[in-house]
Amino acid sequence: MVFHFQHFLKALLLGLFTLFLANLHITGDITKYINPKYDFMSKMAAICFFVLLLIQVTRIWQEKHTHHVCSHRCNPDHGNSHWSLRRVVSYSIIAFPIITGFMIPPATLDSSIAANKGFLLSQGSSEGRNGGTERKSLMEGAESLVEKEGIDIYSSDHVPLPNENYLSEEEYDGKLQLLQQSESIQMTEDMFSTYYEEINDNLESYIGKKIKLSGFVFKEEGLTSNQLVISRFLITHCIADASIIGFLTEFSGAKTIQEDAWVEIEGVLEVGNYNGYDLPLLKATSLNVIDEPSEPYIYPVLKVLGN
After folding, report:
1. Do 157 and 299 fall into the same domain?
2. At what angle do helices 85-103 and 5-27 cross, to 10 degrees?
3. Which of 51, 242, 299, 305 could form a disulfide linkage to 165, CB 3.0–4.6 angstroms apart?
4. pLDDT tens per residue across span 233-271
């Protein structure tokens, strides 16, 4: 029997990928990388890596052959040739993501990422009422994924998977109606992006209403000393496409609140102005610093038709 080191190395890499994905699901850190709607797909990927690992293990020890006949003109060593620069580079490229995955713990996106992406208050404006300007929809990338991508979940046979942001049409319509009728708005995790879009699109209807939400503090350049933005990252697919949304907030003690601190805030919605266009302004009545939640991101709602 002959030990093939390169086959062993391939098996090791497959095992590490399997272990990494399994660990993300066990710890719940998978949601720091992808939208929970892809949870099932990532589990299937882990299973595929495990199956490939089992196959690869059988190739580590093989009987020694003095003569090898290969009818299809392949390299007779089948991956056991001497090391070359090309082969070292290939293994390094494959090994890099798994090494960094284990060595660098998952971190929550913060205000430094928001600044690099360009925050919502810096976005452009479009022609509005009375010849003035008003904000474009801040929910680019946060529309219903069904409408945006044609995902076929409008089926009576569709069964939502655990931890995904699915709501039935009745639940969705009921929560949207609650927003429109209630004098006090609760920005819950499941409806955060939908409520946010609705408030921005129909701001006049929500002026004077109380609102309660939580998020991290971001201080964009150009804000006054009593202003900050209560922010959340919206994940459509994965953290690579993360967009940041939030409310401009005025609070007398704003300058004492550190950037990236997580806060729970209550206040009243008014109309503010930034760079010449109108936007929701939250006049804070109370603000409390809280711990970062275990799942800090929000996700677009996916609606499912009932039977």
Report:
1. yes
2. 20
3. 299
4. 988 888 777 888 899 999 988 889 999 999 999 999 999
